[in-house]
Design brief:
heterodimer, A: alpha+beta, five-stranded antiparallel beta sheet, 4 helices, 5 strands, 37% helix, globular, B: alpha+beta, four-stranded antiparallel beta sheet, 6 helices, TRAPP_component (chain B)
Chain lengths: 167, 191
């Protein structure tokens, strides 16, 4: 299986960490090789579909947050307060979702062959995020702009976790 | 979740998942902090209480993540459950004590935690300056911890001590009141 990307959002709806392993799923690479300037998207009123060329990582994160936030609220309306969605898939990718009671949201995008990543995301929270980010006494408690999450121990362990354990 | 189930979870976690540390180390470390604050603020005990609460708040915001990671418990369905979780699991795994949850108001929004034992205050005697007995809440850091921890799980609470055996009271009692549940934050609007 292939892990495409990974995001953490905090309780203030801010993307405090993101990591991308492969540029884009293969079907999108063709499109993204088309030369476009970053500024062209500013004239667009709506973010285009996933895979559009001139989107920045920042836009990706916002799109993904919007998606999981709406989906989570919708799921709760239909299935009750305790319900939560675990994953959704499209024809191109699978999105895995894990939310802690403190409203930290972990999102991972993988290829279609991957099994459920819920446990893996939980492990990342328990063994990596809590251990290396939360318990680092000198890092700030909250992470506006991702400050403090970008620490070496966390990043290295995440890298190892994704490459060794998951593939 | 019932109170007995919460105690069971607390006991189990305490036995299996928790690294232990020498109790005197905790007592002396905490005592040193309070003593230093009293010195720094020239025995302005109101200010010391405030600083302890603030320190606790910052600890609580982190401690809750460790609590959730270790316990794996989900969201409580009401404030009564939250109270049991705090007393039977939270205090159990971090301080190996289980304060009694009591004195509920009829709207289920306020309760008291009564501490039979308090590792932070072992060996402590408040200074004899005629004021500390009336003004200093020695274990005030605990109020801040609860406030910080609960804020992270979408509950704004007020926590303060109402009596302390160190002051000559019969019991050590902390009053915890639910102010409100915090709504999910939305991403900032794009212009």
């Amino acid at each position: 299986m292939v892990v495409y990307s990974f995001y953490i959002f905090d309780r203030h709806a801010e993307c405090i960490y993101n990591r991308r392993w492969v540029p884009r799923p293969s079907s999108m690479i063709g499109k993204s090789s088309r030369p476009t300037s970053e500024t062209s998207t500013t004239t667009n009123t709506l973010p285009p579909v996933l895979g559009h060329s001139a989107r920045t990582t920042d836009d990706d994160a916002k799109l993904i947050f919007g998606t999981v936030f709406s989906l989570r609220n919708m799921v709760r309306k239909l299935g009750g307060e305790d319900d939560s969605f675990v994953t959704y898939r499209t024809s191109q990718y699978k999105l895995h979702y894990y939310e802690t009671p403190t409203n930290i949201k972990f999102v991972m995008l993988t290829d279609l062959k991957s099994p459920s990543m819920r446990v893996a995301l939980q492990q990342i929270y328990i063994n990596l995020y809590v251990e290396y980010v939360v318990k680092n006494p000198l890092s700030p408690v909250e992470h506006p702009g991702g400050v403090g999450v970008n620490n070496e121990l966390f990043e290295e362990s995440l890298e190892q976790f994704v490459t060794r354990v998951l593939s | 979740m019932s109170a007995t189930k919460a105690s069971r979870i607390g006991e189990e976690l305490w036995k299996t998942r928790i690294d232990k540390v020498n109790a005197e180390l905790v007592t002396l470390t905490y005592g040193t902090i309070v003593a230093q604050l009293c010195q720094d603020y020239d025995s302005n005990y109101q200010e010391v209480n405030k600083q302890l609460d603030k320190m606790g708040y910052n600890i609580g915001m982190r401690l809750i993540e460790d609590f959730l990671a270790k316990s794996g418990v989900g969201r409580c369905s009401n404030f009564r459950e939250t109270a049991d979780m705090i007393a039977k699991v939270g205090f159990k795994i971090f301080l190996n004590i289980s304060p009694t949850v009591t004195n509920w108001t009829s709207d289920n929004n306020q309760f008291s935690l009564v501490f039979d034992e308090n590792p932070l205050a072992d060996f402590v005697e408040l200074p004899d300056d005629g004021r500390a007995q009336d003004e200093l809440w020695f274990s005030n850091i605990l109020c801040g911890v609860l406030r910080g921890a609960l804020e992270m799980v979408q509950m704004q609470v007020d926590a303060h001590f109402v009596s302390d055996v160190l002051r000559g009271d019969d019991a050590t009692e902390m009053r915890v009141s639910l102010v409100r549940y915090i709504e999910d934050e939305m991403p900032p609007e794009e212009e």
